[in-house]
Amino acid sequence: MSSLTIRDLRKSYGNVEVLTDINLEAESGEFVALVGPSGCGKSTLLSIIAGLESVTSGEVRIEDRVVNNDAPKDRDIAMVFQSYALYPTMTVRENMTFGMECRNVPRAEQKETVEKVADLLQIGPLLNRKPSQLSGGQRQRVAMGRALVRDPKLFLFDEPLSNLDAKLRIEMRSEIKKLHQRVGKTTVYVTHDQVEAMTLASRIAVMYKGVLQQYDTPKEIYERPRNKFVAGFMGSPTMNFLDAKVVAHGDGLGLTVDGGDGAVMPVTSEKSAGLTQGQPVVFGVRPEHFNPVHAHRGDPIATLKVLVDMVEPTGSETILMSRVAGQNVVASVEPDDAPNEGETVELAINMGKICLFDPATELRL
Amino acid sequence: MQSPPDVRHPPKATRRWADMVPQLVLAPTLIAALVWVIGFSLWTLWISVSQSTLLPDMAYQGFEHYAKLWGSKRWTVAYQNLFIFGSLYVVGTLIVGTLLAVLIDQRVRFEGIWRTIYLYPLAISFIVTGTVWRWIFHPNTGVELALKDMGWVAARFDWITDRDLALYVVVITGIWHASGFAMALILAGLRSVDGDLVKAAQIDGASMPRIYRRVVLPTIWPIFVAVAVVLLQFAIKTYDLVVALTQGGPGVSTTVPAIVVYDLMFQRGQIAQGAAAAVMILVALALVLIPYAVWTGWQKRKEGTRHG
Amino acid sequence: MADATTHQEFDPLATGGMRRRLVSKAIVYGALGLFALVYLTPLLIISLNTLRPLEDIVRTGFIALPEAETMTLRYWGEAWGSFCIGGTCEGVSRFYKNSLMMTIPATVLSTLFGLLNGYVLSKWRFRYDGLVFGLITLGVFMPQQMTLLPWAFVLGKLGLSNTIGGLVFVHTVQGISFTTLFCRNYFVSIPDDLIKAARIDGAGFWRIFRRIILPLSPPIVIVTVIWQFTGIWNEFLFGTVFTSGANQPITSAIVAFSGSGTGERHYNVEAAAVIMAAIPPLLIYVVGGKYFVRGLTQGAVK
User: Fold this and answer.
1) Window 41-60 of A, Cβ < 8 Å to C
2) Given this model, what pLDDT does residue B305 score?
3) Domain residue limits at B30
4) Which residue of A has its CA nearest to B12?
5) Nearest chain C residue to A89, by CA
6) Mean pLDDT in chain A?
7) What whole-number distance in Å separates Cα of residue C117 and Cα of residue A210?
8) Would the pTM count as exceeding 0.95?
9) Does one domain contain both B271 and B125?
10) Model pLDDT, residue A38
11) Is A71 touching B (CB cutoff 8 A)?
12) B301 inside domain
């Protein structure tokens, strides 16, 4: 049974439509990440699921109940906010019991629940402190604790890690993942960080301009993005898009980069379905699918001759900023294989991993 | 599994009422504000063109009361006084306030005590302030008598009974009362100035007075505008201070518009003309506040476009 | 050690700098002291004159020190309890009580309304809420003169003419504009997420107000209470127009007896009454000075 169902959802403020025809379903126990650039509507969608915003049309269902008109408290949800939203005048314990107090849960039961959750999150020693006396990571943990005591049908997270520094963020990320594995509750997690989405989610909903672009597993999203936006948004450094043309190549088809030296890159038979000779395409290659020819392993390959403008070592990998026929190409290579600035090198492309897009519709072909 | 209810159906009536709580809480205030701000203004406006004399009479008469008002010497003197008093009071208060703020900004010891001393006049009423200063300025009780008592028999300090100088007594007292207020706001502004700016100016070799004059004070000029607007409002509404200090005299030399309103309405039984005078006060306020509101709105919009 | 001192003494730059620093310090403190004198003297002089016999004041005026042998506190007693004002000889005690009876309820009521209004206007957005807020804050700028006649009429209709209750009513309505402005601007800085979290926790309008907003409110409550108390206590025009005789607040009473130029003047008693009128707001100011300034900055710059 699905735990959360969103059907034909629309939301507009006056004449401005901020969400258009959202359809989304989460199985029980699933971890769904809503990801997209700021202003894409992901936070609005989360607020609608929480009942903090109303629906213009469509329906939101939690398990088998339509909750469109239910108040947040009646939806059996819990939420962790970006700012944590811990009540500053209450102790950690009071923060966690406030919801139960509102629901008239007996005191003994409140105490028991808080202790159980405090144990789970290892915040027992903090229970009598005020939020202002906690570090960022501790606040984060208390915020999750407050959500956990509710034992809800649905967990909602609104960019919960964006206020933490880089190191703590990675730490808390894995903690959230562990927690989800342990508790097994359906979770909707909003983030603008595609790495967070990739690492945490069982399915990712990529949103842009109020429209759900693709809803799929992280692997599918990464390898088979439905359109140019999804391809570009997921992955860092971002996918290269080169204007190219389909040409004949032996028995099959190949690609030449517009304005280039005419070198033909063979397209695998699996990817050439539906392509016709002379068709313009956008040729998408992720930076890590480039390799200097001498270091390339595996097939099938094609090569592309590029002029290296800049070399940026990051330690674990080296980023090449280069050009081919006036189009920028970013490649990520092993540090040992990196060429020098100003060199012209031949890069091997793993043609099994490339994506081709229609230049007009931007959909993947 | 039961069939899902139609989402377009209105929710339960009880929830509707609960949703109305915020508006219901606000309702008494809203009604009061509507009656008080809009209703009362229109009422007074109507009275000013009605046939009212000693008692309200709602029959329409026209704008004669305004003509009569502007024809009376008392009123023109009062309006003129408002201009003289207002400009001297605002400028003087800003100068003294700035001076005090800059002095306190020199990392002085006991800052809290200095501030408390300079600001306390604002806590006491205009009535107390005016009464106290009247005694000090009056030749029979104040400075002049003290000087004579000390042996300077020819001493004269009788501004308060001098038709040409009494208004400056009001100005001085007003500045004494409000300069702490200007100091507090300007000091808050000085404290908000980026310390790096001062360091940069010091490295450029500027002296402290020059740093204030050329760098620090110019960056907080919006605060000066805000303080000036508030002070202008005080000036336009000035009533109690003059009543306690000079009662508008000698003669009409320190009369201000608010005093004329009171006299016309409650001493001379000319309600309509008093209402007309009150409307003129509102007009003066609007002339100050509307441009300021437009200007701040414009500033905010400029900020907005610069940031996003 | 010796080396260090000689070195310092012979360094012309260091000594020059030191002297310049001392001079500028002297200027700063000198100016601060001079201003302090100007601000303190008037009230000090009048306070001292409450202790002097009338003959002394008449002879030398206010600007003189009391003489030890004639110093007395009895003028305070007279001013409080037995001085004759307008035919009745009860001193200012009655007017003082009037002022308290007017100021305290009006302060409490306007603060309560301000808190609720500010809470609604900052946390429960609805259609046209900006317009409503604008209308309410317009009241801050209303000149009293525009409201005198309508108020007199309304108070008459309500049977509140010449009553303390009438003044409480007028000051409450007028004060709500200020308190709403203060509270709304303060509550806006409370993150909306707190309210959302509380709603998800199941708290309603009143519970959120009681458990989240009120515990965060003490700073703004102090500001509004100080502001309202001093403002209403010091107010003069409404008190004079809407009440008369024994029902007037202290400000009107002071003008009534010290402003009227007839008969023999009792400067020492009058001075005591004036100081008494200044004491409550001064006390509040000294105790809550920090919040007083905060109220100023918020109220003025908006």
Assistant:
1) 47, 50-52
2) 66
3) 1-48
4) A69
5) C215
6) 89
7) 35
8) no
9) yes
10) 87
11) yes
12) yes
